[in-house]
Queue: 4 jobs
Job 1
Amino acid sequence: MQPNQRRGRPASLMVFLTLALLLGLLAAYVGVMHSIVDVSRIGGDHDANERDAAYSYLHLVFLAGSAAIGFGAGKWLNGLGIAFGTLFVIVVAVGMLAVQLSSYSLACHGHNDIVRHWQCD
């Protein structure tokens, strides 16, 4: 081993921790979205601007948080903080999109208000 080279953690630990953190972030996203489903009802106490602002902040916080968690995990696991941070942001963003598209499809087939109140045409 070179003097400036850092030894990483075992590969099985890296895979397990990465998957556990990503699944935890996506589960937290679904949980938070489900808990604020009332914000998406425009006819209720909130208007469209409040709804859009709430969702924008929520998504930005989750993406920034996933970048920070990924960076920390990558630094601790093998020193590749930026790579893990980027990986976490991409996977969480794709997961958010999948959750939204799935909930829209389910809403249009009679299962509304899972993570958002949708109005199907």
Job 2
Amino acid sequence: MVPLIALVAGTALARLAGLAGVGPLDGWHPALRVGLAVMFVLTGLAHFTNPRRAGLVAMVPPRLPRPELLVTATGVLELAGAAGLLVPATARWAAAGLGLLLIAMFPANVSAARRGLTLAGRPVTPLAPRTLLQAVFLTVTVGISFGA
């Protein structure tokens, strides 16, 4: 739920800044880019800080090798994608890459929900709400990739 709050709050604050006269943020598309970037900075940093890192490593499906490396790599990709969203020339490609990353990482969320894992001491989001959140996040990446 925290990533959704970050997305909504980041988008709303960026949109308000645009309405207040910050030219580069004047419009919903740039505001969404900022909101998504805020979300991915938050989730990307979680890949490197405990106790979340340990929970993310545990979420990697057991059949995949080197879960620590996978968590580090996905964290780096999330942070790089967040930076790319903030540069208009790379925003569409960054959003497309982040959308693909969301799809690639979703099996870890499914695996974690099925195994009843915890993340930072709290149960992971159940599969149905997590799937809905994933659809929202993917919709935003597609909107940025193909939007105005």
Job 3
Amino acid sequence: MAVLTGLMSFTKGHGIRALSIIGPNGLFISQAVNGVLLSAIINERNYVKLDGEQFEKLLFAFSPIISKVIKLTNTNYYTFLGRYTYNGERFIYEPYVDLMKTVTISITRKSVRIAYGENKVRLKRTRKGYTPSSMLETLGYIVRRLHGGNA
């Protein structure tokens, strides 16, 4: 599989979680605001509301990851924008945590790794039992859709 790239952002605030993934053929958005959840894929021709527990789980699985990033980098940001790459086996997200500094979040079937300079953190699952393998599978589905595939 070719390497697919695009932009991704994650916002974490009081009562708000938002994940946006942008590819060449559309936008995936998943937002939870005060308990109201919406996930959709939007492109120039249509809007598809996504019903599925996997999108909600993905959104809330990123929350503790971003909490670790905030703690590790001591940043004041609450929205993290950066580039992603996906090759079928690994999803890498490199959000900015300062004006010219990024952190690397690497998701494989076995773990989520966060690297910032010499600091490294490895996670094998969330507190609620969501696994990196499930994250990678859902992210792969989304990215393939945004790059022209149907699934």
Job 4
Amino acid sequence: MLFLTNLYKWGIHYSDNQKEIKLEQIENDRIRKSWNYMYNNNGKEVKRLMEKAYINSEETENK
């Protein structure tokens, strides 16, 4: 009985984790698509700003 209870709890926990991972992937995909849209449909000045923001975001993650 204890084994079944723990298995059930693990199954619920696993399911919740998979759902959270899926939501994060959907959000990341939406961000990537919007970034590409902005980058491809704007001029050189916007592209330069976006590249600078991208580089700056990498530098802050490495600190």
